[in-house]
Amino acid sequence: MLTRKQLELLDFIQKRMDRDGVPPSFDEMKEALDLRSKSGIHRLITALEERGFIRRLAHRARAIEIVKLPEAMTKPGFKPRLIKGDKIDPPKGAAPVSSAGAVDLPVMGRIAAGVPIEAISEVSHHVAVPGSMLSAKASHYALEVKGDSMIEAGINDGDVVVIREQTTAENGDIVVALVEGHEATLKRFRRRGNMIALEAANPAYETRVLPEGHVKVQGRLVGLIRSY
């Protein structure tokens, strides 16, 4: 049996993985559970691992495999999903992407996770992604990441991000933002009154705060593909 905090953490991790395609950081876990320090999160993660609900992978930052869920959290059709440095893979024994209901998405060039680059509009190639990563009633596209400003969110230079097309975002979403009509960048979205903050996930980069009219959301991160 899990304690209330252990159950809350497992539920939070699963929901964030379902929503964003990437796991929450320890800071986000701490904030969500209203804990004073990350050491409390480490203890909860260890307890979940000891009870067989999750498994941590060695030598990979924030790499978590959800092995099972408590009966109260189990949803029809749930399958464990492996996060390797914030990459989604099918569980062991699952069919490879090419035969598991994959969908070919256009890769619209490169997106800056650092200093913004010119907006991208041309398809460079296509990539196959699991259909389960996509929403049936929405359009999607993919972008290759250039830069390291989102590394603490598990998004590295050279990764391919899967984006759901939408023009709105909630605080904390990782979005493709078009800045002043010509610069495209991948950042975490925060609304501050009539201003928009585009936050990096790397302390080496400053948060950009812009008037609301200077930022247009072009999509939200829903998945990530990494080649090793």
Could you write a compact summary of the structure shown?
The protein is an alpha+beta fold and 228 residues long.
Outline the structure in words.
The protein is an alpha+beta fold and 228 residues long. It has 3 helices and 14 strands. Strands 5, 6, 7, 8, 9, 10, 11, 12, 13 and 14 form a 10-stranded mixed β-sheet that branches. A 4-stranded antiparallel β-sheet has the order 1-2-3-4. Strand 10 and strand 11 form a beta hairpin. The longest helix has 17 residues. The protein is globular. About 11% of the residues have low confidence.
Q: Give a count of the beta strands, DSSP E runs of length 2 or more.
A: 14
Rg, nearest Å: 18 Å
Low-confidence runs:
75-100
Q: Report how far the terminal alpha carbons are from each other.
A: 37 Å
The string of secondary-structure elements, in order, is HHHEEEEEEEEEEEEEE
Q: What's the helical proportion of residues? A: 10-25%
Number of continuous helical runs: 3
Report the principal-axis shape: globular
Beta-strand content bin: 25-35%
Class by alpha and beta content = alpha+beta
Which sheet architecture does the biggest sheet show? 10 strands, mixed
Mean pLDDT: 77
